[in-house]
Amino acid sequence: MIRKKNKFSWPRKLYDKTRISDENKLVEEYGLKNKREIWKAEAKIKYFRDRAKFLITESTQEQEQFFAKLRSIGLSVKTVADVLALNKEDLLKRRLATVVWKKGLANTARQARQFIVHKQVFVEGKAVDVPSYIVPTELESNITLKAKSIKVAKEKTE
């Protein structure tokens, strides 16, 4: 059996009160399962920053291709400085659970996560059961709920 490499790195200082309180706020705000999801977002942002630093010396065509990829997932970047200014919240806002909640298909971020895990959310007609799925901007308007879930969500608000 091959051991998989972690997609994140543990915090250097495990018991840092300010970091823990900040992460608790993010977990509550975005309806995350655990803090590992925050650390994965940080690792992805670190990858984007490292890639941008490497592309500083490359041609503008390669830079523009990288920026176009980031813009397609909903990050507003035009220059290397914009990529270096990204933070974990920018990526957390593009997760499927957050998009479903902000779109008003669920009452809370936790409820949006539950709908996704129970295969009640469809993206372009296909059920997606991964709450951490990064929604491309062109697919954002194609997110729908199963008809039964819509009734449940409306009943809870009334």
Description:
This protein has helices at 17-30, 36-55, 60-72, 80-84, 88-92, 96-102, 109-117, 147-157; strands at 121-123, 126-127, 143-145. It has 158 residues and is mainly alpha-helical. It has two domains: 17-89, no CATH class; 96-157, RNA-binding S4 domain (Structural Genomics Hypothetical 15.5 Kd Protein In mrcA-pckA Intergenic Region, Chain A, Roll). A hairpin with a 2-residue loop joins strand 1 (121-123) and strand 2. Helix 6 (96-102) packs across helix 7.
Oligomeric state: single chain
- Helix and strand content put the structural class at mainly alpha
Contiguous runs where pLDDT drops below 50 for at least 5 residues: none
What is the number of helical segments per DSSP (H or I, 4+ residues)?
8
The termini sit apart by 51 Å
Strand order of the largest sheet: 2-1-3
What's the topology here?
Blueprint: H1 17-30, H2 36-55, H3 60-72, H4 80-84, H5 88-92, H6 96-102, H7 109-117, E1 121-123, E2 126-127, E3 143-145, H8 147-157
Antiparallel strand pairs: 1-2, 1-3
